[in-house]
């Protein structure tokens, strides 16, 4: 059983079809894929954090 712990809740995989090696890189690639249209506009994704920022006019 693989569980990812975040600040807000636990996420667990229902089915694992591959060995989770280098999970941080997999996380970063997944976040980049999901948030692609917002990256560098108002979201920055790092290996263990996602920063959301807004410019005030």
Count the strands?
Answer: 4
* Largest sheet, spatial ordering of strands: 1-2
Mean pLDDT: 69
Regarding quaternary structure, what we see is single chain
Shape descriptor reads elongated
Strand content: 15-25%
Q: What composes the largest sheet?
A: 2 strands, antiparallel
Helices and strands: which structural class?
Answer: alpha+beta
- How many structural units, i.e. domains? 1
Q: How far is the first residue's CA from the last residue's CA?
A: 47 Å
Radius of gyration: 14 Å
User: Stretches where pLDDT falls below 50 for ≥5 residues?
Assistant: none
- Count of DSSP H/I helices: 1
| Percentage of residues in helical conformation | 10-25%
> Topology as H/E string?
EEHEE
Describe the structure.
This protein is α+β, with helices and mostly antiparallel strands. It has one domain (3-52). Helix content is 21%, strand content 21%. The chain contains one helix and four strands; from the N terminus they run ββαββ. It has one helix at residues 23-34; strands at 3-5, 10-12, 43-45, 50-52. A two-stranded antiparallel ribbon has the order 1-2. Strands 3-4 form a two-stranded antiparallel sheet. Strand 3 and strand 4 form a beta hairpin. It starts with a strand and ends in a 5-residue tail after the last strand. 2% of the residues are buried. The model has no long low-confidence stretch (mean pLDDT 69). Keywords: Membrane, Transmembrane, Transmembrane helix. The chain crosses the membrane at residues 33-54.
């Amino acid at each position: 059983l693989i569980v990812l712990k975040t600040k807000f809740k636990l996420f667990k995989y229902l089915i694992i079809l591959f060995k989770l090696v280098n999970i941080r890189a997999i996380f970063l690639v997944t976040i980049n894929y999901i948030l692609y249209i917002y990256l560098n506009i108002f979201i920055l994704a790092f290996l263990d954090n996602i920063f959301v920022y807004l410019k005030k006019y």
